[in-house]
Design goal:
The structure is a single chain. The protein folds into 2 domains: 86 residues, D-Maltodextrin-Binding Protein, domain 2 (3-Layer(aba) Sandwich); 43 residues, no CATH class. The protein contains 4 helices and 5 strands, in the order E-E-H-E-H-E-H-E-H. The strands form 2 sheets. The protein has a 3-stranded parallel sheet with strand order 3-2-4, with helices on both faces. It has a two-stranded parallel sheet with strand order 1-5. Strand 2, helix 1 and strand 3 form a beta-alpha-beta unit. The protein is globular. It starts with 11 loop residues before the first strand and ends with a helix.
Amino acid sequence: CAATHALAARRRVQWRHLRDVPIVATGRDHERAVDQMRANLPAEARIIPVDVVDNVTTAFGLASQGLAVTLAPAYVAPLARTFGLVMRRIVDPETIREVCVYRPTERALSPSADGFADFVMPWLRRWDREMQSEARGKRE
């Protein structure tokens, strides 16, 4: 959200805090993921985006102008900060999305895809450790 948004003053955001806040979702798969996360709630407690855009930069632009907030994974925080946005962890319940790299078993990857996979897996593990350490530090 924008630094001036009421949610920015919170250290953590609960899903219930988002009920009356305009949310812009990024991509239909993200919209479906949010729907699935909250599907067991009664209709009046569900979080429903006011719009769905294709690009995270579009959602960040809308959020930076204070028109909405958006839901994004923590790994896009550096990009969000370039828009002047602040990120807050959503808890109660906290949702975790797993990132996977799939490799074909029947053929070799192209050299560029293989290089990317060799880079991204250790990077994701290191990033995850750093995020967990940062979260522990904030709780203490």
